[in-house]
Each structure stands twice: as C-alpha cells, then as structure tokens.
Design a protein that fits this description.
Helix content is about 85%, strand content about 0%. The chain is built from three helices and no strands. It has helices at about 5-25, 35-55, 60-100. Helix 2 (about 35-55) packs antiparallel against helix 3 (about 60-100). The N and C termini lie far apart (about 60 Å).
Length: about 100
C-alpha cells in the first residue's frame, strides 16, 4: 500500500500524525504524564526493534546509513524517556518521604 501513496501523501499523513499527537498529549493532565511516558517508552522500544530489523535487511550503503541513524536516534529517544520517567518518579517519592516525617 505504501508504494501506491506518493511522497506528498506520506508527508500529509506525517503532518496529520504530528497534529493529532500534539493534541492528544496536550490534553493529558499532569498526574497522568508518568504513566503516559512509560507507555511511550514501550512504544519506542518496539520502534527500536523495528529499526534494527529493517537495518539488518538493508542492501545498499544509503539504506544502511539511514538505518543506523534510525537506530541511534531511537536508542537516544528511548533512553532519554526512561531517564525523564525515573527523574519524575524520584520527585514524587521524595515528597512522600518528607510527608511521612
């Protein structure tokens, strides 16, 4: 199906996905951001596995370079998400330990 959609069609789908994603995330209350980030980290892990699998089947140098870039960016995105989630959870646990005193 992707072969039947031209470059303009794929760009249109990408732009619409960006707008929908922004609207969905901006409507989430602050209390739900940690679970939302945990779910996003799981999705980023799946994307990373997909990038690794696609790069493994690459045949030309351009495909390999683009695949490597996708793997590196996916890894940075996933690790950064876990770091931010851990930092947010530590902020909540510090408040709880102060309340118990």
């Amino acid at each position: 199906m992707a072969n039947q959609i031209g470059g303009v069609g794929l760009l249109t789908i990408f732009v619409l996905a960006v707008f929908v994603g922004f609207e969905v995330v901006s409507k989430v209350s602050a209390i739900l951001h940690t679970p939302l980030m945990s779910g996003a980290n799981a999705i980023h892990g799946v994307v990373l596995v997909g990038a690794i699998l696609i790069t493994g089947t690459a045949s030309g140098p351009v495909q390999i370079i683009l695949g490597l870039i996708a793997v590196v960016l996916g890894t940075v995105n996933m690790v950064g998400g876990f770091v931010v989630t851990d930092r947010m959870l530590r902020m909540f646990s510090a408040k709880r330990s102060e309340d118990r005193r």
